[in-house]
Design brief:
By secondary structure, the chain is of the alpha+beta class. Among the domains are: about 160 residues, no CATH class; about 80 residues, Alpha Horseshoe (Serine Threonine Protein Phosphatase 5, Tetratricopeptide repeat). It is about 45% helix and about 15% strand.
């Protein structure tokens, strides 16, 4: 069978978290289809140990109904969060003495948490977390004005740190020197929503500057990241990833397809995002067994962003499912031409050639074996290819 469906996040980013998300995205769908993308050694996770228990007080992917059994609605302030909902537990009611915000998607799943400490939380009582932060390289460093700090009244140097595991990302916004750090914000989110939960996003920095809805007498600088992509599109794209890759336990191609369609309808300002939304929608249609619709979306993706190897490889597999061997072969050929070390496309190309051109198939199988040599995650496919090579050699 063809080893299909790269589900690769094509955003241009260089952070470890993005690399790890890419690996999870690829292999998460691979588990469904008994395949994984171009093999890569799993990166070593960054240090993440913490004795700050507040981020462990609530489990991500908890349903809203379950959450409300332990957090009485009478203590919370609900407000809209795009198509989802945010529940705020103010500092005067919070055991952490910080403002707690819990974000639920429109399917009622907890996808992110933000803790905000406008006066700063002294981290000296938390040696494990301080040790972790010492081992991490700041993702971002900048100067920040936080008027409510108990010990500081002017701008000071701050740093944003990222860590996490295979499915979640934790971010810490810390002010002051490493020897005497103060925590301003901490966030925890499932990876598809990371882009929406950076403490450096402007809407979260504003919570530090003007806590509990205070209005500034004078507008401060506009520091903070402001995403150029429409929030509804990013939110629906993240929802699609969450449903398609089973981040919250239940895989739903129906939800994924609906979410990607909403993301496309909302519009993206960047064609890379728009192309990837069509690509991911195509993969959702594949999961639903609707290969003609999958072909249409992948062709649309390539029309927006031509010559993308991952999409060509996946389109080739869709063509093969539809019995269009000529276009399948052409798609795999183009994928490996654009990326000669694309191992899984080499494998697919070999299988496509085997019935009509055994000599070429043998060459492609041997190339695949050279590319994946020593990669344990490919052991089963390597064994299969070695058998095919023996047959073709004789």
């Amino acid at each position: 069978m063809y080893a299909p469906f790269v589900n690769w996040n094509s955003r241009d980013t260089h952070t470890f978290r993005a690399v790890l998300l890419r690996l999870w995205v690829v292999c998460g769908l691979g588990l469904l289809l008994n395949a994984c993308d171009t093999p890569a050694r799993k990166p070593i996770l960054p240090p993440s140990e913490s004795d700050l228990v507040l981020l462990k007080s609530t489990t991500l992917c908890t349903s809203r109904s379950s959450f409300l059994t332990t957090h009485p609605l009478s203590t919370l302030t609900p407000q809209d969060w795009g198509t989802g909902q945010e529940f705020v537990l103010p500092a005067d009611r919070s055991p952490s003495h910080g403002d707690e915000s819990y974000f639920f998607d429109e399917d009622g799943m907890l996808v992110g948490i933000i803790f905000t400490f406008p006066s700063g939380l002294d981290l000296n009582p938390y040696p494990v977390l301080r040790h972790t932060l010492m081992q991490l390289k700041p993702t971002l460093e900048f100067y920040l004005n936080v008027a409510n700090l108990s010990s500081k009244t002017s701008m000071d140097s701050s740093a944003l740190y990222e860590t996490g595991d295979e499915k979640t990302t934790t971010q810490y916004l810390v002010l002051g020197p490493r020897e005497q750090p103060a925590l301003l914000q901490a966030s925890l989110t499932i990876d598809p929503y990371v882009r929406l939960f950076s403490p450096y996003r402007r809407e979260f920095l504003e919570r530090l500057r003007y806590p509990r809805g205070q209005k500034p007498g004078q507008q401060l600088d506009s520091q903070g990241a402001e995403d150029k992509e429409p929030f509804p599109s990013l939110q629906q794209f993240a929802r699609g990833q969450t449903a398609q890759l089973s981040y919250c336990g239940t895989q739903s191609y129906d939800t994924a397809a609906a979410a990607y369609q909403k993301a496309i309808a909302s519009g993206f300002s960047n064609n890379v995002w728009l192309a990837e939304a069509h690509h991911k929608l195509g993969l959702a249609w594949v999961g639903k067994g609707q290969h003609e619709k999958a072909k249409t979306e992948m062709l649309q993706s390539l029309a927006i962003r031509p010559n993308t190897p991952e999409i060509l490889n996946n389109l080739g597999t869709v063509y093969s499912k539809l019995g269009d061997k000529t276009n399948a072969l052409a798609s795999f050929e183009k994928a490996v031409t654009l990326r000669p070390n694309y191992a899984i496309a080499r494998y697919n190309l070999a299988e496509a050639y085997e019935p009509t051109n055994p000599k070429r198939a043998l060459s492609e199988y041997e190339t695949y074996l050279a590319l994946v040599d020593g990669i344990s995650d490919e052991a089963n496919r390597i064994a299969h290819v070695q058998q095919r090579v023996k047959v073709l050699q004789h």
